[in-house]
């Protein structure tokens, strides 16, 4: 009910807004889980063939992280948490994920 009210409120405010109706909030269980998911998110542009090198993808937060952490620390991060390459997010089912325009909801 609360979710429905929230979605209805967004529709009321801006009927052109796009919602991800099946959004799942997630709290990492520990540092390893957090770092694995961070690497998974950073690696997505390569995984989905948008680029072959994260440095070449302008829409990634990798650039900011690279400036903060540097080459050596990021290399260490990806080497120490390699499970990002095979991670399957249990909270996301590809068939359940859909982006819908609020206009189509009215």
Architecture overview:
- With 106 residues, this protein is mainly α.
- It folds into two domains: 1-24 and 92-106, no CATH class; 26-90, no CATH class.
- It has helices at 2-13, 31-47, 62-80, 102-105, and strands at residues 18-20, 99-101.
- A two-stranded antiparallel ribbon has the order 1-2.
- The chain is extended, with a radius of gyration of 17 Å.
- The two termini are 18 Å apart.
- Mean pLDDT is 76; it is low at 94-106.
Q: Number of DSSP helices?
A: 4
- Give me the strand/helix succession: HEHHEH
Overall helicity: 40-55%
The percent range for strand residues is 5-15%
| Radius of gyration from the alpha-carbon trace, in angstroms | 17 Å
Overall morphology: extended
Runs in which pLDDT lies below 50 for 5 or more consecutive residues are 94-106
In short:
The protein is mainly alpha-helical and 106 residues long. It is 49% helix and 6% strand.
Secondary structure: elements and pairs:
Elements: H1 2-13, E1 18-20, H2 31-47, H3 62-80, E2 99-101, H4 102-105
Antiparallel strand pairs: 1-2
List keywords for this structure.
mainly alpha; extended; about 110 residues; single chain; disordered C terminus; 2 strands; 4 helices; two-stranded antiparallel ribbon
């Amino acid at each position: 009910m609360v979710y429905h009210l929230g979605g209805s409120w967004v529709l009321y405010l801006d009927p052109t807004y796009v919602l991800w109706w099946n959004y799942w909030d997630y709290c990492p269980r520990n540092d390893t889980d957090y770092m694995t998911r961070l690497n998974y998110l950073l690696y997505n542009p390569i995984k989905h063939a948008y680029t072959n090198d994260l440095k070449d993808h302008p829409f990634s937060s990798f650039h900011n992280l690279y400036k903060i952490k540097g080459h050596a620390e990021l290399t260490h991060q990806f080497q120490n948490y390699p499970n990002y390459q095979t991670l399957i997010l249990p909270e996301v089912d590809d068939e359940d994920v859909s982006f819908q325009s609020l206009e189509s909801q009215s």
